[in-house]
Automatic annotation (TrEMBL), chains A, B:
It comes from the Bacteria. Pfam families: FAD-oxidase_C, FAD_binding_4. SUPFAM superfamilies: FAD-binding/transporter-associated domain-like, FAD-linked oxidases, C-terminal domain. Residues 35-214 form the FAD-binding PCMH-type domain. This is FAD-binding protein. Its cofactor is FAD. It comes from Mycetocola manganoxydans. The keyword Flavoprotein applies.
Amino acid sequence: MTDVLARLVAELGDAVVTDAVALSIAQADKSGHRSASAPLALVSARSIADVQTVLRIATETGTPVVTRGAGTGLAGGAIASGGEIVLSTMAMNRVLEINEADQLAVVEPGILNGRFNEILGERGFWFAPDPASKAISTVGGNIATNAGGLLCAKYGVTRDAVLGLKVVLADGRLLDLGHRSVKGVTGLDLTALMVGSEGLLGVIVEATVRIRRAVPGVVATIASYFPSVTDAAAAAAAITAAGIQPSVMELMDSASLEAVSTLLSLPGITTGEAHLVVQTDGPAAQQEADAALAILHSLGGRASLSTDPVEGERLLAVRRSMHPAMERLGTTLIEDVSVPRTALPAMFAEIVRIEQRYGIRIPTVAHAGDGNLHPNFIFEGTEVPDMIWQAADELFATALRLGGTLTGEHGIGILKKRWLGLELGDDQLDLQRQIKRVFDPQGILNPGKVF
Amino acid sequence: MTDVLARLVAELGDAVVTDAVALSIAQADKSGHRSASAPLALVSARSIADVQTVLRIATETGTPVVTRGAGTGLAGGAIASGGEIVLSTMAMNRVLEINEADQLAVVEPGILNGRFNEILGERGFWFAPDPASKAISTVGGNIATNAGGLLCAKYGVTRDAVLGLKVVLADGRLLDLGHRSVKGVTGLDLTALMVGSEGLLGVIVEATVRIRRAVPGVVATIASYFPSVTDAAAAAAAITAAGIQPSVMELMDSASLEAVSTLLSLPGITTGEAHLVVQTDGPAAQQEADAALAILHSLGGRASLSTDPVEGERLLAVRRSMHPAMERLGTTLIEDVSVPRTALPAMFAEIVRIEQRYGIRIPTVAHAGDGNLHPNFIFEGTEVPDMIWQAADELFATALRLGGTLTGEHGIGILKKRWLGLELGDDQLDLQRQIKRVFDPQGILNPGKVF
C-alpha cells in the first residue's frame, strides 16, 4: 500500500490527496451509506494522462480504483473503502467544444450538468438529461449512471444524448468510442454499453453529447390537488391518454404533500390530498396546457395554470421541496423503482400495503409521465434497519411483478446489488460478469459494486 | 452435415427447408453480393422453442447459424454459405401486444416494419424507425442493424425505440433483456448492446418497443431545386441553423436528380441542378415550413410547398425514385457513410474528387438532417470491381477524417469488414471480439460477418 501511494505521488505529485477530510468524504455519497474505512488516497486527475497513470499503477499493483464525480449518487456506486484509490474527475471540468451547427458538444466528465446548461443557455442550447441533482452532479456521473430526471418521457434518458466517449480502460489504455455523426453503426455499440455502467468497465474521460436548441414558445405550468393519490394518478393517466405530452408530470402522495405543506406552510391543503404538477413546452405548450387543465378540472382537481416563468417556478416549488421536507421526518432511504405508466396506481396501492404491514411511512413521489417512483423510507438513526430493507425487498419484488425494474435512474451501486439477480436472472447476470471481465480482467474497477 | 440435417428434420419437421430455390435466395441480400455456395438448410422458425432447438443442435454439432429476416440488408450481413444453417424468423410475425396507455408494443421479429405501422396506424400510433426498406424489411432486422432512415434527426434511430428484447443465445438459452418501463438502469445495458449487433451475439425472438402517438397537425412538404449540390447543402444547413427541425430533409446531387428526371420525365430540370426536399410535421409544421420556404427562396432555390398529403407524396416521389433510377444506370454499390452535418459540403466535394480520380460516376443522396450519405457506385457486371473498392476505400477514409463513420445505418456485414479496424482501432476491435466470445464461445453465430 505504501508502495502504491509512493508511486502515485512520484508520478502525479500534488494531484494525490491524502487529507483525512477528503478521504472521509469519499466514503459516502448522497444515499447516506458510508464505507467502513477510509480509502488509500484520492487522485484529482487534471488530464486524460493523469487518469491513464492512475490506472497503469493500479493495474501493476492490483489496487482497486473507485471513479468519482461529485458524489451525488444515491446507490453507493462511488463510495470508496480501505485500500482503494479514489479517482476524482471533478477537476476535469472543461467544455472543450460547442458546435451549434452539428448540435453537439465535447466535454470533460467533471463539469456540472447545471453549469454546462448555463454555458449552453447563453447560446440558445441545452443538454436534455436533467437529474434532480443537476446543479450539483457531473455530466460524467450522469453518463456513468444513465441518469434520468423529470423530462425523460419527452426528451429521453442520458443514453439518448451520448454520441461518443473517450474511456480509459483498467490497464490505462485510451479508447475512443462512438462518433460525432447523428448515426453510426460500426461494430457493437460500446458507447451505449458504457452509459450506465457505474464505473465497472472503464473511466469516462471525455464525452461527445447531443445538445438541443432551446425549445421555442412558452412553458406552461399547472399545479393541481386531488382528494387522493389514486385520483391524481388517474388524472395523470388521462392526460397521457388524451395524447398530451407534458415535459414534466410529477405526482406527490399525501404523506409527501403533507410534509412539504408543513415545511412551506402551504395554505389550503387538506389532509389526504395529493399533488400533480404538469408542465408543457414547445409550440403547442399553451394548447396542451389548456387541454390538461380541462382534464384536471373534470376529474375533480383544484388546478391553476401559469405561463409566467416566476409563477411557474413557484408552482414547481412544492415538488422541489420534497427532499428538505423528508429530512425533517428522519433519515431517508430514497428508492427508485420504475413501472409501466399504467401500473402506477397498482404500485401506489402496494406501497400503502407495505406501509401498513411494516408500520412505517413511505412518502412517495413519482415521475408520472414515465412511471418512475421514489418511495422514501423514513427511519431513525444512520444505518438502514433490517426491517426497512425487508419492506424495500417487498417493494422491489412488487415492481418486478408489475413489469418494472429495481431502479429507474439511480443505479445498483452497493445498495441494490443483493437484488440484481432477481431482475436479471442467473444467465444474464453471468453474461454481465463475463463482460465486466473482458474490460477489467483483474477486477480492479469499482469492486464490490453492482455485482 | 447429414447428421445435422437429420437432427434438424427429426426435431423440427417441415420447418426445415432444403428446397434449392429457398437456399439460393439465402445466399444473397439487397447488396447484390452473393455467397459462393448454398447453405445446408433453412429453418423457418415458428416459435421461440424452434429457435432454441436450432441453436441447441447447432451448438452440439458446431454448425454455423445465419439469422435472417427479409434479406433486405445492404451489407451482406444475412448471407449464408455452404455448411451453414439459415435461421429465418420471417414466420414469427405476430404483434403480441399493443399497449396504448404504456405506449409500447411487443412483437415477434418477423413482422414487416410497414405492416406493423399499418396495424399501429389503425389505433393512431406509429413506430418511428423508418428505413427506406420499411415496406419489405422486418422489425427484427431493423433492430439487428440499428436501422436508421429519413426521420432520425427528429425521431431517433432504432436503438432509441427498443425497451426490451428476448434473445436466444448460441447455446439455446433464452434471455430476457430490458424492461417495459420508460426508464431502467439495472446492470449493464445489454439491450442496447444487442441493437445493431448484426446476428453476432444471439437471435432476437421478441421485442418490446416504444410506439408513438400519431403526430398531430399537418405534414408540410417542400420540394426545391438549386443550381448545384453545394447550394442545396448550404440551404439545408441554413434551415438547421434557423432552428427548424424538419422531420425529413433529403438532398440529391445532380447525377441523382438527372437519373430520376430521365426515369420520371420531370419537366424543367436543368443539367447540374440538385434537389432538396424538406418535410415538417407537428404543431409548428406550417410555421416551420413557411420559414424554411423563405430560406430556400432567399438562397436562390426554386421551391414549392404543399400541405396536401397527395401532393406531398408527389413531391417526395423524386427522392423515392432514386433506387429504380440507379438500376437503369448499371449495377450499384450503395454506400452509407455518415458525417457531422457541417461536413456534408466537404464530403460532397470529396466525392466529386473521387469521381474524377477514378473516372466513375457516384450519384449521391444524403439524409441532410443527420449527415448520412448514400453514394451509389455504378459499374457494369455483377461483381464489384477492385477499382470500385479502391474508390470506396478513399470514400471511407475521407468520412473518418471528417469525423464520420463507415456506416450510418446499413451495418458492416461482409462488405465493410476489411475497414472495421480503420474506424475502431486495434484495442476496441479486440474488446469487441472478446464480447462476441462471451456470447458465442464457439463462434457459430454469423461467422465471417463484421469481424
